[in-house]
Amino acid sequence: MTKSRQVTIHDVATRAGVAVSSVSRVLSNHPDVSIDMKRRVEDAARELGYSPDPVAQSLRRGSSRLIGYVVRDFATPFFSDVIEGLESVLNSSGYTLLVMNGGGSQTQEIERMTMLKQRRVDGLLLSTVVDSTPKLRKIVSAYDKPVVLIDRDLDNLDIGRTLFDHVTGIKAATNDLVNLGHTSMVLVTGSPDVRPTRERVKGFLEGLMTSPEAMKKSFEITGAFSAAFARKETTAVMTGNPAKRPTAILSGGVQATIGVLESFSELGIRPGRDVALVVVDDLPWLRILRPRISAVSRDAEAMGRAAATMILDQIGGVKPSTIYLPTSYEARDTSSSLEDVMAYRTKMQRK
Amino acid sequence: MTKSRQVTIHDVATRAGVAVSSVSRVLSNHPDVSIDMKRRVEDAARELGYSPDPVAQSLRRGSSRLIGYVVRDFATPFFSDVIEGLESVLNSSGYTLLVMNGGGSQTQEIERMTMLKQRRVDGLLLSTVVDSTPKLRKIVSAYDKPVVLIDRDLDNLDIGRTLFDHVTGIKAATNDLVNLGHTSMVLVTGSPDVRPTRERVKGFLEGLMTSPEAMKKSFEITGAFSAAFARKETTAVMTGNPAKRPTAILSGGVQATIGVLESFSELGIRPGRDVALVVVDDLPWLRILRPRISAVSRDAEAMGRAAATMILDQIGGVKPSTIYLPTSYEARDTSSSLEDVMAYRTKMQRK
DNA sequence: TACAACAGTGCTCGGTGCACC
DNA sequence: CGGTGCACCGAGCACTGTTGT
Fold first, then answer.
1. Which nucleotide, over all strands, has the C1' atom closest to the CA of A61?
2. Which of A84, A115, A288 sits opposite B265 (nearest CB)?
3. CB contact under 8 A, B158 and A288
4. Are A293 and A311 part of one and the same domain?
């Protein structure tokens, strides 16, 4: 702990022998400054080690060079990657990212948003627990600073949106499974309160369209962002009526993936042999598993960069827009054919 | 986007028909206020939806009800749990946590710390990439607000510290392995630039003490916080001279654990059969693996709560202190005996 | 006269930017 | 054109003045 009051613009003015307002102009690159004046002020500032007080600047200007990001749960690998992307762009533009954890509660998220507004952030990024609620819509439309949604949706509002084209990836995966002969498939995923879940379900259904039988026998299970939920549901489905037991599972989101794999471990089910498996959102640590699990992936960091660029543009006066980033399916070892799965199952039954 | 200038203390004063200074006194619980006055002001404030401007308050008071946390990498599960603990305590005390990512660079971390200071945070929490460097020591000792280190060390400074007793946990694990007959063990872990790594190495060495032979044949590999590093080192060790091949591995930290498991996957090594394994820091998704991996664990959330409580105390004037939280070892399926490992290895050799 | 309970003034925090010279 | 003075952002706080009891 030390004392020594920080040096203010007054000190610089005194040192340089000029008016406070002149110092301000020099430092904010105002055109009307003589070269001599500029030099004197800059010298004085450097000698005193002056740097403007951001709090005072915020108060006066109403802005802060701060960008807020309210996120559902930043421990999720996807979001940490987004944050990396955001920071890489924001930092190099002199902005600082303020990440606020939503704690899984819409109420808390709204508190955070209000808090950020009071602190005069220059822009707000959002990946909330729930989108499309009247409450959220109200807050967002009343926000007097640029807003950009990250993989979330809210119709008919003049705000920015950076979205993933979830449909394409999961549709490709579903099509592949259909081509491999599967008709009884289950998509286990998170909460339908957010766009990714809804789009994944949509993509899954579109993928089923090529096969009327698959359409009839396959279905999705949506619910909560929790491994426990996915585990329970998977176990229920895999231990139910053997005749109706799915031959392929798709898991959407980290928690769902963990839950599905937990269930498999407990039941002694090996993905790719007892059942085909595609995870939606690849995870770094999945590499430790053999066989290699098929996955749909997306570039979270790119999304972060896109969102950051977009909000900076909006701060600069550009009109809000919507952009889409791709998702892609990569078949690995667990995209096994219906034939192989059935062969294994009957072999087991005979034992 | 909307307009409507925010309501200030003046508006409240006008509405209540009192002086601005009186409003200020009511809101800051000054003693000289009549019950009637208090009521009128509070009513007016509520009716107008007034809430004091935090930026203006910060400027005037020099404080902000903000606590900064500069963390090496908050995507690490350990840190996200710490953050949860921090927020639970801080939020209920009216403080807001500002998490800043260090990006793995000391330079950037120091920038963040300076930034937070300028923003007038009331306290600073630190889990940096490197501790004990003169540079960091200088900044910290010049910080005029309370500082609390989270699982980091910096000697002879009058600051708070919340530390894990890493030694006990890993020592117990090492002892167990020694008792299971192992003498050739390797600890693969992260960077020795931070306390946890140093303490783990220390605990490992203490655990080896009971066996002179183990002391001679076992060693540690420290380096970077990256899965790639751990993978490479593990592969080198496991494919080297068969006579010297370790019979037990301990991995310290998430990235090291991922790296070790990746290496095992690639080499077709199964933990608990080809080699004993203990991971230091349990991970939620490890549950999906069979056999169950033995682990040393610690309560990250409790650490967060402890650190938050400590910094609030310091803000309240309490002297900085140091507290320790325990770590514990739990033997699961991969704490296999030397005998079993050797039996499997010779069996393989004969094939 | 003494005191409680305000009102009102004015300076402070650190800067910004417009009007004016 | 170059530069200065000053009001202002929103609040905190100390101090004087006023009123009623």
1. C16
2. A288
3. no
4. no
pLDDT band at A3 (very low <50, low <70, confident <90, very high): very low
Is residue B2 included in any domain, yes or no? no
Q: Is the CB of A236 under 7 A from strand D?
A: no
CB contact under 8 A, A101 and B118: no
By CB neighbour count within 10 A (0-12 exposed, 13-18 middle, 19+ buried), where does A212 fall? exposed
DSSP 8-state secondary structure symbol assigned to residue B92: T
Q: CA nearest A149: which of A123, A183, A116?
A: A123
Nucleotides of strand D under 7 angstroms from a protein beta carbon = 1-6, 8-15
Binding-face residues of A in 32-91 toward B, CB within 8 A: 51, 53-56, 58-59, 74-75, 77, 80-81, 83-84, 87
Has residue B1 got a pLDDT over 60?
no
Per-residue pLDDT tens over the stretch B29-58: 877 788 888 888 888 899 898 989 999 999
A320-344 pLDDT tens trace: 999 999 999 999 999 999 999 999 9
In this structure, what CATH number is given to the domain that contains residue B36?
1.10.260.40
Given an 8 Å threshold on Cβ–Cβ distance, is A55 in contact with B120?
yes
A143-201 pLDDT per residue, tens:
999 999 999 999 889 999 999 999 999 999 999 999 999 999 999 999 999 999 999 99
The spacing between the Cα labelled CA in B26 and the C1' in D17, in angstroms, equals 21
Residue bearing tokens 């992936």: A297
Distance A340 CA to C2 C1' (A): 100
Question: Is residue A109 over pLDDT 90?
Answer: yes
Could you check: is the Cβ of residue B57 within 7 Å of any atom of nucleic acid strand D?
Answer: yes
Residues A252 and A339 both lie in one domain: yes
Asked if A13 and A141 sit in the same domain, the reply is: no
Per-residue model confidence (pLDDT) at position B5: 60
Q: Which domain holds residue B199?
A: 167-298+330-350
Q: Which residues of A277-305 are buried (b: 16+ CB within 10 A; e: fewer)?
A: bbbbbbbebbbbbeebbbbbbbbbebbbb
Determine whether the interchain pair A54/B262 forms a contact, defined as Cβ–Cβ distance below 8 Å.
no
Do the bridges between strand B66-71 and strand A66-71 make them parallel or antiparallel, or are there none, so unpaired?
A: unpaired
**B215 and B338 assigned to the same domain:** yes
Question: Alpha carbon of A106 to those of A51, A115, A132, A190, A255: distances in Å?
Answer: 38, 14, 12, 16, 20
To the question of pTM greater than 0.90 for the whole model, the response is yes
